[in-house]
Write a structure and sequence with these properties.
single chain; about 850 residues; alpha/beta; 35 helices; 33 strands; about 40% helix
Length: about 850
């Protein structure tokens, strides 16, 4: 911890002379020194440097007072350091350093005690109140210490340092009250009221009205209404305030709170539950924790039936003071303090807002799931697919069906039965699945044309330089140039026969496509086809193509945009809009009709070599934008239109509402295949979210080591975020269509949240309330009620849950639980269908 003080440069071995004191006084406020406590103690207590406890804007006069964090008491009347420490310990007061002053002798001990408040106090009356209370607890001290303008000389005999020790207004007020009661309980009320008048602090029921409030929800105008009665603990991070109520204050928080309706206490929370779910509470029972952590626990236990007994069964010193503290908390009807504000060391790993939230969190089912036999579900799936394929009316036919129900084999058989009557285009998410579907159709004697993925083609024929160039062109929005680049490459490069033949076949792929009765292609390729080509086919799409579209979000830096404007690479009609983005406020969202760049405009951008690695084309053709001033970038979403042709989409993750909102004007027909019960087991552990940030805080390696011991299965097949599975083909965002884990035990780690701008960009495009923010709320999906970091707006929440459910469903589905007696261990706090929910703690965060 560091403090700000005025610290004079000159070191002394004895008290400065009068002439030197004048020089020190004139110079000491010239600079403000920020210094850690240990060094402060050495510079003052050993090297004799002079300091002031207050910060001034100019000379050392009251009118120039800025703030105070350091408080001193001087003892020179026979009171010893041992006597001081005994009383400080008795009343739970923590000095930061003690040193003998220059005037100290054996016959007449003289020493100075320095206290560090936990924040800078920027209110002179509050600083006076804190100093006055210290003087009352230690009446043996020199009363001149209360002068905020005073300089304090250093010493050469440092006796004690505790660099972690702090005090605060609330603790000292409670220590004072405990001290006065122990000295003269009979006259306590008269004395405390007398002290209250001296400090101009209100006294209520024999207690000083000095208390702490978490005021994160209070608006600035409400704070102004309580002007001098509030002091902020941490001006940048904390929402905790210390509140002093003045005698004349008309808006007494004390009276307001005493008049509040008494809150009901939570029942059924035992010591066993607290020890099991809260690692800080476990520490509280097993070892010594800090005062503020005890305070955090106390405010939470106050809302629990039997909480007082649970608190005083913990590891507590200064029981009398804590009894006083408990009464104080009750009097002011304290709400449970946020774990972050209480400096809980486990907060970043646990992420529960309060201890009360942690011990009461429950996931409950909001409906009973009904299941059909798997054979019945298979028949209904086939019936729905036939119904969609045979339908005459144009539209998008959505068929929601579980993973492992046999979607691929069912639609392949329907293609075999009907391909002589009509042409089919089968669309799948990955090249790997494209090959598997093509092979299955060929096994059924259906002649197939498979569109070629240029990346895999060029890798297969070992043309890496051409592959890199083609990938770059597609990535940067210049895909229209790929075929001309290939033609030039053929003309200017010596190729072997196979390489040349394969490249020429690729160049003729459009003609071959138009001549084929059965085409198997990928989502990405399908979205690039013109509607005139697609309309010749009966289109069957395997897996959710909308998710493929929603993944088209990216960013561009302010610097790259400014460079593009400078080089006039942005079309004239777009420059005004782009400049508005650069000057927009933080988080500003803009939605517009996607720009269709002409070939001449694209060529002009391509000619600017310094812009070739900038995603300028994708930026200009985006549909929604969000400005991020702090990162100096613009986030954007490229909406790809789903062709207005008849198609059937079959997937486990389809969301009817999103398709209706995205494909406006197109007919949507939704059919849901009844759910069949898993043959295997889905065991879901929900004690931690294990989001990307949560995994980062705890450490993936540590979690994996814990789970290796925790999970009995010998197979350790894992699906998680790509960052932690770089050696695997299967991870969140790329798990659909893989069969490697079929019938095997599987571990799925993490809740696949997206960065918020993804939801905001897509939500804005869909005309949702994109200003909505993520917050911890009670919510529900179609099976469970639960607490989750989500949006208040129903449509934004539906969008978010669609992303998360899709990733989890695909990952879980790799084990094919529907058909195999295996286990999937899922570690996520988003509850999934058919899961055995286990809320117990599984990581020893301590």
């Amino acid at each position: 911890m560091k403090v700000r003080i005025h610290l004079h440069n000159q070191k002394y071995r004895s008290k400065p002379k009068k002439s030197e004191i004048g020089k020190i006084s004139n110079e000491i406020t010239d600079k403000i020194k920020e210094i850690d406590i240990e060094r402060f103690a050495q510079e003052v207590g050993k090297k004799g440097r002079t300091f002031t406890t207050s910060i001034f804007n100019g000379r050392r006069v009251k009118e120039n007072f800025v703030s105070q964090q350091v408080f001193c008491l001087d003892f020179d009347k026979g009171f010893t350091i041992d006597e001081f420490m005994e009383r400080a310990k008795q009343y739970d007061i923590h000095p930061s350093m003690i040193y003998n002053t220059f005037s100290n002798t054996k016959e007449s001990p003289r020493f100075r005690v320095v206290f560090i408040n936990d924040c800078e106090i920027q209110n002179e009356e509050a600083a006076f109140a804190l100093m006055y209370m210290l003087l009352e607890i230690f009446p043996e001290s020199d009363k001149s210490c209360k002068d905020i303008t005073r300089m304090f000389f250093g010493g050469n005999d440092l006796k004690f340092v505790d660099s972690n020790a702090t005090i605060n207004l609330v603790d000292i007020s409670l220590s004072l009250q405990a001290y006065l009661k122990s000295r003269d309980k009979k006259n306590y009320r008269r004395k405390i009221e007398q002290i209250g008048r001296k400090m101009q602090v209100q006294v209520n029921n024999g207690k000083l009205c000095i208390h702490a409030e978490v005021l994160s929800g209070i608006k600035s105008e409400e704070l102004l209404a309580m002007t001098s009665n509030m002091i902020r603990v941490n001006a940048t991070e904390s929402s905790l305030f210390y509140v002093i109520e003045k005698e004349s204050h008309n808006h007494s928080m004390c009276r307001r709170q005493n008049g509040e309706k008494k809150r009901k206490k939570v029942r059924g929370i035992s010591e066993k539950i607290l020890l099991k779910k809260c690692p800080l509470f476990k520490d509280f029972y097993e070892k010594n924790i800090t005062h503020e952590q005890k305070f955090l626990i106390a405010t939470n236990l106050l809302s629990i039936s039997g909480g007082e007994n649970l608190f005083f069964a913990g590891n507590i010193n200064h029981v009398e003071k804590w009894k006083e503290n408990w009464e104080y908390l009750k009097q002011y009807h304290y709400v449970p303090q946020h774990c972050k504000n209480g400096n809980c060391p486990y907060y970043e790993k646990c992420r529960s807002p309060t201890i009360l939230d942690k011990v009461t969190e429950k996931i409950s089912k909001n409906r009973i799931e009904g299941y059909c036999e798997i054979e019945e579900a298979e028949k209904i799936l086939r019936s729905y697919l036939l119904q969609a394929v045979q339908a005459k009316e144009k539209g998008i036919y959505l068929i929601s069906a579980q993973t492992a129900l046999g979607k691929t084999s069912t639609y392949c058989n329907i293609v075999k039965e009907n391909y002589e009557k009509k042409s089919f285009m089968v669309v799948v998410p990955t090249t790997k699945l494209q090959r598997e579907v093509g092979e299955e159709l060929e096994r059924l004697n259906v002649p197939v044309f498979m569109t070629e993925n240029i990346y895999y083609l060029l890798r297969e024929i070992h043309l890496d330089d051409l592959k890199d160039m083609a990938m770059y062109l597609y990535k940067m929005g210049f895909g229209y140039k790929v075929k001309s680049v290939i033609r030039d490459y053929i003309s200017n490069t010596k190729l072997d026969d196979i390489q040349e033949r394969r490249l020429r076949e690729y160049l003729k792929s459009k003609e071959r496509l138009e001549d084929s009765r059965c085409v198997v292609t990928t989502h990405a390729m399908f979205l690039s086809f013109q509607s005139e080509i697609i309309s010749r086919y009966e289109v069957v799409i395997d897996e959710d193509i909308l998710m493929s579209i929603f993944k088209n979000t990216s960013t561009i830096s302010f610097g790259d945009i400014e460079l593009a404007l400078e080089k006039e690479a942005i079309p004239k009609e777009e420059r005004g809009f782009v400049k508005r983005l650069l000057n927009a406020s933080d988080s500003r969202i803009e939605v517009k009709k996607p720009l269709e760049l002409r070939i001449s405009q694209l060529d002009k951008i391509y000619e600017k070599e310094m812009l070739r690695n900038v995603p300028l084309v994708n930026f200009l053709q985006a549909a929604s934008y969000q400005v991020d001033v702090s990162k100096k970038q613009v986030n954007f979403f490229n909406a790809r239109r789903i062709p207005d042709v008849k198609m059937t989409i079959v997937s486990a993750t389809l969301n009817e509402e999103l398709y209706k909102n995205y494909c406006k004007g197109q007919k949507i027909c939704f059919m849901k295949v009844p759910v069949a019960k898993y043959k295997g087991k889905l065991l879901q552990y929900t004690a931690h979210s294990l989001s990307r940030s949560n995994l980062e805080d705890i450490g993936y390696k540590k979690i994996k080591e814990k789970l290796d011991k925790f999970i009995e299965s010998k197979e350790k097949n894992i699906i998680t975020f790509k960052k932690y599975k770089e050696d695997s083909e299967i991870y969140y965002g790329k798990s659909e269509g893989y069969n490697e884990y079929k019938g095997k035990d599987l571990i799925v780690i993490g809740t696949p949240h997206n960065v918020p701008f993804v939801y905001h960009l897509i939500g804005a495009y869909l005309r949702y309330d994109a200003e909505d923010t993520l917050c911890l709320r009670m919510t529900e999906n179609d099976t469970y009620s639960f607490k989750f970091m989500t949006f208040k707006d129903d449509k934004m929440r539906n969008l978010q849950f669609y992303f998360i459910e899709s990733e989890l469903e695909q990952a879980i589905g790799r084990a094919r639980l529907l058909r195999y007696d295996c286990r999937v261990y899922l570690f996520s706090n988003y509850p999934c269908r058919q899961a055995d929910i286990i809320e117990d703690e599984y990581l020893d965060l301590a």
